[in-house]
């Protein structure tokens, strides 16, 4: 049984991303932890530690697991990405841990104060915000999570001012808001608009990723960029903030009507 003190230890979100990929591939191969452990000559507890992000396994071990799971080198590639981190990704330093976790999450929640959430941005909207091609392509890769089968449940609240803040030109805004309406009709996507106003304790944009095993990782936007955390108290406070915003926001149906009205009155 895992000790309480171990459960409370902070875990590197980058390790959690690899851990979830490791576990997903084991389960897809139809093996339990003990069976895989026997195949690669380790204790079951070591497999458990890897899958909970409590240890960074060696590359030669990952190669043995990759062969045992018939992963065709893809698990080793994930390990290489884990080790390379900033060098092998194009995300800003402060954001480097979150996209990998985001891609393997079961539930994604977020609040945006200034701009349309990155997962929901059209190409034109994103390209205007991200003039460097590498940054733009990174944004597009993040959106591939929407095509996952099944996709994660995604619930996003955006400040009403996002609908009125011009990015690029009226056509870009019109197309972007039309796309939000389209997305809002998809299964497992919930988009809500919070009326402009003051919400106690809420000062910035944030995102919450929940992994299939219910571990949660928070990304919070800061003046210098942002930070990622798994600290229980910080996660708890962020989740409470999101619940408050959801309660104050327009429901999904009202949000669609509001977006349509803004398109007609401002961007047409």
TrEMBL record:
Extract one GO molecular function annotation from the record: DNA binding
The HTH cro/C1-type domain extends over: 22-56
Gene3D superfamilies listed in its UniProt record: lambda repressor-like DNA-binding domains
The record ties this protein, via SMART domains, to: HTH_XRE (SM00530)
Concerning SUPFAM superfamilies, the annotation shows: lambda repressor-like DNA-binding domains
From which domain of life does this come? Bacteria
Q: In this record, what's one Pfam family?
A: HTH_31
- Output this protein's name: XRE family transcriptional regulator
* Source species: Actinomadura spongiicola
């Amino acid at each position: 049984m895992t000790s309480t003190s171990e459960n409370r230890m902070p875990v590197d979100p980058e390790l959690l991303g690899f851990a979830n990929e490791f576990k997903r591939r084991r389960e897809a191969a139809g093996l339990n932890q003990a069976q895989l452990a026997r195949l690669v000559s380790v204790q079951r507890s070591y497999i458990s530690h890897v899958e909970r992000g409590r240890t960074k396994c060696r590359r030669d071990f990952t190669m043995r697991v990759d062969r045992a799971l018939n992963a065709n080198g893809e698990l080793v590639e994930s390990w290489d990405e884990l080790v390379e981190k900033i060098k092998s990704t194009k995300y800003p330093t402060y954001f480097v841990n979150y996209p990998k976790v985001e891609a393997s999450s079961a539930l994604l929640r977020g609040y945006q104060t200034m701009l349309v959430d990155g997962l929901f941005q059209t190409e034109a909207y994103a390209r205007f915000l991200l003039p460097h091609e590498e940054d733009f392509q990174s944004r597009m890769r993040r959106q591939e999570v929407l095509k996952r089968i099944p996709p994660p449940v995604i619930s996003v609240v955006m400040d009403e001012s996002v609908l009125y803040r011009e990015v690029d030109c009226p056509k870009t805004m019109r197309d972007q808001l039309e796309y939000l309406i389209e997305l809002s009709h998809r299964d497992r996507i919930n988009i809500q608009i919070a009326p402009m106003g003051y919400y106690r304790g809420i000062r910035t944009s944030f995102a919450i990723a929940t992994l299939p095993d219910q571990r949660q990782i928070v990304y919070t936007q800061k003046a210098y960029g942002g930070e990622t955390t798994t600290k229980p108290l910080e996660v708890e406070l962020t989740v409470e903030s999101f619940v408050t915003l959801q309660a104050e926001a327009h429901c999904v149906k009202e949000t669609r009507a509001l977006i349509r009205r803004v398109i007609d009155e401002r961007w047409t």
